[in-house]
Predict the 3D structure of the following.
Amino acid sequence: MGVALPLYLVTMASQNVPGVAVMRSLGYEVSWRASMATTGLGTMIGAPLGGHGVNLAAITAALAAGPEAGEDRQRRWIASTASGVVLVLCGLGATAFAQLIALAPEGVIPAVAGLALLGTFVASLRSALAEPEEQLPAGVTVLIAASGIAVAGISAAFWALLVGLALRALLRAWRRTGSAHSG
């Protein structure tokens, strides 16, 4: 629960909901129920085999369904198919790549991963802290997540989301009540 629930929320918020929105904005009709059933089934099939969650991949959807994939809307399926083939090829090469990574000296991979994510982390932090009224909930969320403290066997990521969202809702309600009383 400590990992699954935060991953579910992140996947829904960053891939599935934007994926449907992107497709609809490009003029394609997407059934929410059918797409969630399909991605859920794909995740259930892939999970025992070590696969990650299947989702609508908002960025890939935008690239494969948008004008960048060609002027003729009837032929944009080629971009989706090409994307799928490339991903399958990457998957087939993953074992060899994983073995190559296993040969790296201890500490190299976490260092490289940390460096690769540093830009994303800074951009995300900047965005989360851009609005003054969002700074406290965002800061508390980051601190709880970074603490690594698990409560009742549930990881810090879950508690960070829960406390951050609760604090955000509480502060918004407090501001609304405060502005109603000051008027």
